[in-house]
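cron nightly-structures :: item 1 of 1
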Amino acid sequence: QQQIESLQGKGLLFDNKAHAELVLERYGYYNIINSYKEPYQNVVENHKKYIVGTTFEQIYSMFTLDHNLRNSIMAAMLELEECLRAATAEVIAVSFGVDHHDYLKFRNYRDRYSSNPKFTLDSILGKLRNNVGSDKDPIKYYREKYQIVPPWILFKGTYFSTLINLIKYLKKDEKQHLIRIVLRIPDDVEITEEITTLFQTILFICLDYRNAAAHGGRIYNFQSPHVRDVRISEETIRCFPTLENAEVSAGIQLLLILLSIFKNRQSENIIHKSLEEQLNRHLGRYPNDLDILSGCIGVVIHSAKYVWVNEKTRIYHSNDFCSGMTDGVKRKLEDIDTSIYCPCKRCIQE
């Protein structure tokens, strides 16, 4: 109640104080207000005040958007991680065998400089050797029964960061083999150094998003520091046409573009679906936030009016629960042929 009184003193409006108390108690003042108030404030006489008309529910809706988007990032990165584990294990097994005594040898990898001692080649291989001694199944089972731990078993207990840094140390042949497995690259296209570097950069961008989501950071306006390393030439665009707008994109829009070059499009689809749902939900209630979200997310958001069409009656409705409608199909109003379909007299006012 004191928090609500303080917010009212700064010009914030409340549609439902009882509900506001519940969500403040559930998620905390800082997580809702301090994290999402910035777009809704301006400075008046050296004091921050809420823009006239801003409501607590509006800020909470932005929090909800980010909360759900964060969950989708985690789900998408888990999907990507699982595919990378399987593909990397396949590459290593083909080149160095399935015995951890063999495939974890230093000479199998290309030693590169790392500014972080935790991610040197010695350190990465050391972590993997330690994991071989895990007392958890299935690693323990394979070690005790077969005296070896195949890479596809060992990698199940490996952190995403360890896996990505191991990929960084793969030699040319192994890294190109991995790229052919996971990226949508034509068989007759040569894998250049630029493509190899881009692939590694994308993995580190994904790791940045995964870590930000895992630690409760804001996602809707998150910018990976590795974005500065994205370099895309016309030759690369010919190989991956969806990268055409990558260098002029930012935020989640850039992440979606980069994920589009993977054979498994599930990670991209998970994020895209959540983003679309949350933008439609929030902007349906607060259309004036379109510019705020466009700038933060890096997406050019086009406003469109959707209706639900009943193919049997040839009537379109403003919502999918209008009385008497069943099996409605969602379509853009601008795509409706009004010479064939008529507006519902109950839910659409001309």
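cron nightly-structures :: done
The longest helix spans residues 56-96.
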